[in-house]
Amino acid sequence: MPINVSKELPASDSLKLEKIFVMDEDRARTQDIRPLNILILNLMPEKEKTELQLLRLLGNTPLQVNISFLRTKSHRSKHVSRHHLENFYTTFEHVKNRRYDGLIITGAPIEHLDFQDVNYWNELTEIMDWASDNVTSTLHICWGAQAALYHHYGIEKFAMPKKSFGIFKHQISDPTVKLVRGFDEIFHAPHSRYTNISKEAVENNADLTLLSVSEEDAPFIIMSNDAKNIMITGHLEYDATTLAEEYRRDIGRGVEIDIPVNYFPDNDVNQRPPNIWRSHSHLLFSNWLNYYVYQQTPFEWE
């Protein structure tokens, strides 16, 4: 079934070329079913790339999904046009009186900052608090996951000696949990971050369940016991070439950085890396939409 987005959104054409089922608003209004309403708070600088990555995953389920994009009012992105933001994004003041079936909060390349030093931190915490009462389930990605763990559960992030950068193996702790239903016991996922969270802090929090750890013994998939908050510390949504683009960007800026581990064939940066995490990316988003949004959200919000 399709995702419902504006037919003017640039990602729409790319999705159609990839045979992702996209429905425009006019056709969606003629269907006598209740679509899911998903809000995406996109904190990534290159917003159009992130839009395409997330829509590709949200469009691969038997559910009709209405997508709305949210941006922070207190921060002006430098890597996307004002025209794009004004046409396809809204701000919190325009959605705070609505209810949504699901919310996605993306990562952001600001992990070197203390949370309180982020210029939109107060706005973000207001959104996260609002989501607790007005969203059925929220999916937090990378820095967004660390922000949620700190704000809701008091778990601090800490700096690592060097960047966790590459494709890592992960293990599932309980394959019977619906979020990871169908996962292999060992699967791969991309990471790109300078900070981490304590595995012990997650395990010792009575409100959280640790579902997956990386081969570095770092928490990867974390879920609150009420399933209102799901935290993914890596980037399952990444394209095959995203880490390569980040690597070349950092090299061009003079940043000392290692080649992403387990990524380029034969560690040859001139070879195109294969995507070996795509199936689990689709599976995680599909499980989240089905079991924690569609199966839980009311048909009519009171």
UniProtKB/TrEMBL annotation:
Which InterPro entries does the record match to this protein?
Class_I_gatase-like (IPR029062), HST_MetA (IPR005697), MetA_family (IPR033752)
- Per the UniProt record, the site (Important for substrate specificity) maps to S192
**Has keyword Cell wall biogenesis/degradation?**
no
- Active site, renumbered: C142 (acyl-thioester intermediate), H235 (proton acceptor), E237
Localization annotation? Cytoplasm
Give the main localization category: cytoplasm
Query: Where in the chain is the site Important for acyl-CoA specificity?
Result: E111
Q: Which reaction does it catalyse?
A: L-homoserine + acetyl-CoA = O-acetyl-L-homoserine + CoA
Q: In which pathway does it act?
A: Amino-acid biosynthesis; L-methionine biosynthesis via de novo pathway; O-acetyl-L-homoserine from L-homoserine: step 1/1
What highest taxon heads this organism's lineage?
Answer: Bacteria
* Record-linked CDD domains: GATase1_HTS
Q: Which UniProt keywords apply?
A: Acyltransferase, Amino-acid biosynthesis, Cytoplasm, Methionine biosynthesis, Transferase
In terms of Pfam families, this protein maps to:
HTS (PF04204)
The EC designation for this entry is: 2.3.1.31
Query: Which residues does the record give as substrate binding sites?
Result: K163, S192, R249
Q: What does this protein do?
A: Transfers an acetyl group from acetyl-CoA to L-homoserine, forming acetyl-L-homoserine.
UniProt xrefs under HAMAP family? MetA_acyltransf (MF_00295)
Q: What is this protein called?
A: Homoserine O-acetyltransferase
What species does this protein belong to?
Answer: Virgibacillus siamensis
Q: What does the organism's lineage look like at the top?
A: Bacteria, Bacillati, Bacillota, Bacilli, Bacillales
Q: Which gene encodes it?
A: metA
